[in-house]
Design a protein that fits this description.
6 helices, three-stranded parallel beta sheet, Rossmann fold, alpha/beta, about 160 residues
Length: about 160
Amino acid sequence: MARFNPAGGSIINISSVAAAGFPTGSVYGATKGAVDSITGALAQELGPKKIRVNSLSPGMIETEGAHAAGFIGGDFQKEIEKKNSARRIGQPGDIATVAAFLASDDSGWVTAKSFRRRAVLASNLRQTGPLPRPERPGHYALPPAVAACAPRPSDSR
């Protein structure tokens, strides 16, 4: 942890909703379950050093890897789209907003959380648009989709 200064910092792990398991995906699901497990353990271990640890667990995101695996444009994509509220797969920007929030000082009291949402999270973030420019470096507006997970000032008493 030598790379973190005494002020602390943030670790953001990327997991997947596949950690819950799905047919023919046991190994992939197990690796993502391990990410979820280490997120909770490291949050407890590193919390005294002011290091927050959270994970993002999105559903299917359109990436180069998803294209290379043949998931994009076929029946698999159509099936995923039918099962989520936005009726589409996620885009990298859908999770980037949450990652930016978790990396910022504004998430200073959010740790050991796994943001497990498929299209609900993505569609809520899409409605809010991109994050406004921070008033001060490292500080971002809290997207409504994340606000429900964030502590209120009265929670810190």
